[in-house]
Amino acid sequence: MKWRRNGWVALVCLAPALAVLGSFQVAPLFYAVNVSLHSGALAGNEWVGLANYRALVGERAFWQSLEVTFWYVLGTVPLTLLVAYWIAELLNRDIRGRDFYRVLFFMPYVVSPVASSAVWKWIFNASSQVNLWLDKRGFEVRDQVWLLQPRGLFTLLGELWGVDVPSWAGGPSLALCCIMVVSIWTMLGFAVVILLAGLSQVPTEVLEAAQLDGASGWRLRRRIIWPLLSPTLFFLLIIFIIKAFQAFNSIYVMTPGGLSGRTATVTFYIYESAFMAGGRGTGFGSAVSLVLLTVILALTFIQFRVLGRRVHYEGAA
Amino acid sequence: MKRARWKLREELATHAVLLPLGLLVAFPFFWMFGTSLKTAPESVHFWPWPAVPQWHNYATAWQSAPFGRYLFVTAVSSAAVTAGVVLSALLAGYAFGSLRWRGQPWLFALFVATMMVPFEVILIPNFLTIQRLHWLNTFWALIVPWAANVFSIFLVTQSFRSLPPDFQEAALLDGCGHFTYLWRVAAPLVAPALATSAIFAFLGSWNALLWPLVVTTTTNMRTIEMGLSHFVQAEATNVHLVMAGSMIALLPVLLLFLLLQRKFIEGLAAGVKG
């Protein structure tokens, strides 16, 4: 008899979650569209139609933030996955101290991002001291300022090797590359834990059978381990790309002000335009965020179309 | 015999790669600790260890910014967020995982779809909502928007679905109400999923920077992450103090992690598989 009242019970149970998620997760999506069509000025919040979107297309800082984000994704995601896979494979062996290593690699992901950004900031800063020390001992290292260096990585490498690099091919600023190092350091443990969970699910019978058939090393990986691991890798790829678009904390702490845009990712740019003095206001910021949403959705869709087909799910042919 | 020796050699080779890598990953923490014990003139040098450890740096750092208040604000809001997430996920998980009602699969799909919405899109509208509610610089702003999250609901729902339906049927036939069943029988059974939800809700709230930055402006309502980022900029010339402050901010979560590391790591691995 009680089953009939399920609807009411379900409603009561869902009420808290619905209230919170409805007001702060679903409604804001629509609200964002509305905000982006207004000026967002303190003096008067007028309807401006698509003016914010038109302004955004002509804004150099916006395109630069997209470029910075592009380099940031390219410089962090593949490298993190590669190194994490290597570590996970080593940890998947029958060795002592596995828990110890897991904790060690996972630590940066857990602890205060501001504290770890602060320590990295000073490590890079103190590295100038190392450069100086090396210089004094006859090694020619030009004093490199790392996090204060807005010039492109490829430009700097070109100077080092005496090659002329055109300005459009300058690449990400050295400061951004430093921030990428911190990002890889932070996310590594997360990827290791998840890849390790995936690797430990590869059935040992399958591996042993393949080994009996003479498969080993790379063949074993290509034919058996990687296909079985592909859902995990695919999941990590999507999560990491979304997370890379959200990069904020390390940039805010290590290069306050975004080094005139040379380290400002899109999320940092949204914060800057909506909340900092001299920004263009909430309307413009919302417009940028919605463009970003479109980019993320498109990227995710493309990944599902292009890579999703090659992902092997258990039970599927 | 030969095989055992070969195994030992392989293990040693593995450690030979992993140990240096692990030390490299741990190095910034060591550097932070070492620098926090240096004198001001020592602090500009790269070498990470002081001649004589200056423990009083911690007292100095503690006094140069209201770290006690920062920690208090953070602890209160993180605890409240965690409680909210656990409670809302338990209730919603029951509705989605153990009850049958019209529109259930549809609403569940909608819930899961909202997981895809990136935070930066809802940042500005949520700020405006908080402003309109006059919640800026209050605990409400730090707590309410985070008091439920889809990841936890998803996790707990999966857990409810794995319970045998006979439990619920028997309990309800015996005249036990839904909430008695939920509290007495089901909650202990889904406790692992609740624990994982709690850990990640707590972590997310404690380590948040962008949201507190947007909704609080007074020193009095600063969270530890925000307070520390202020401290980093204000004390830019006193690296040793900045590192002592960073250690203060880092220790609570680090200790919690070391205490519950198995729950953290296995909860994450299990959550992703689910």
Question: Which quaternary structure do these chains form?
Answer: heterodimer
Order of helices and strands of chain A: HHHHHHHHHHHH
Mind describing the biggest β-sheet of chain A? none
Portion in helices of chain B: over 70%
Mean pLDDT of chain B: 89
Describe the SSE topology.
The complex is a heterodimer of chains A (317) and B (274).
Chain A: H1 6-36, H2 51-57, H3 60-91, H4 98-110, H5 113-136, H6 153-161, H7 174-199, H8 204-212, H9 217-245, H10 249-254, H11 266-275, H12 282-306
Chain B: H1 2-36, H2 56-64, H3 67-97, H4 104-113, H5 119-132, H6 139-143, H7 150-161, H8 165-173, H9 178-189, H10 191-206, H11 210-215, H12 224-234, H13 239-259, H14 261-273
Helix pairs in contact in B: 1-13, 2-13, 3-7, 3-10, 3-12, 7-10, 8-9, 10-14, 12-13
Index terms:
heterodimer; A: 317 residues; mainly alpha; MetI-like fold; 70% helix; globular; B: 274 residues; 14 helices
How would you describe what is shown here?
The complex is a heterodimer of chains A (317) and B (274). Chain A has 317 residues and is an all-alpha fold. In chain A, 70% of the residues lie in helices and 0% in strands. Chain A has helices spanning 6-36, 51-57, 60-91, 98-110, 113-136, 153-161, 174-199, 204-212, 217-245, 249-254, 266-275, 282-306. Chain A has one domain (45-310): MetI-like fold, CATH 1.10.3720.10. In chain A, helix 4 crosses helix 7 (174-199), helix 9 packs antiparallel against helix 12 and helix 11 (266-275) packs antiparallel against helix 12. Chain A is built from twelve helices and no strands. With 274 residues, chain B is mostly helical. Chain B has one domain: Orthogonal Bundle (MetI-like fold), CATH 1.10.3720. Chain B is built from 14 helices and no strands. Chain B has helices spanning 2-36, 56-64, 67-97, 104-113, 119-132, 139-143, 150-161, 165-173, 178-189, 191-206, 210-215, 224-234, 239-259, 261-273. The longest helix of chain B is centred in the first third of the chain and has 35 residues, at 2-36. Chain B is globular, with a radius of gyration of 24 Å. In chain B, 43% of the residues are buried. The model of chain B has no long low-confidence stretch (mean pLDDT 89). At the A-B interface, helix 1, helix 3, helix 4, helix 5 and helix 7 of A face helix 1, helix 3, helix 4, helix 5 and helix 11 of B.
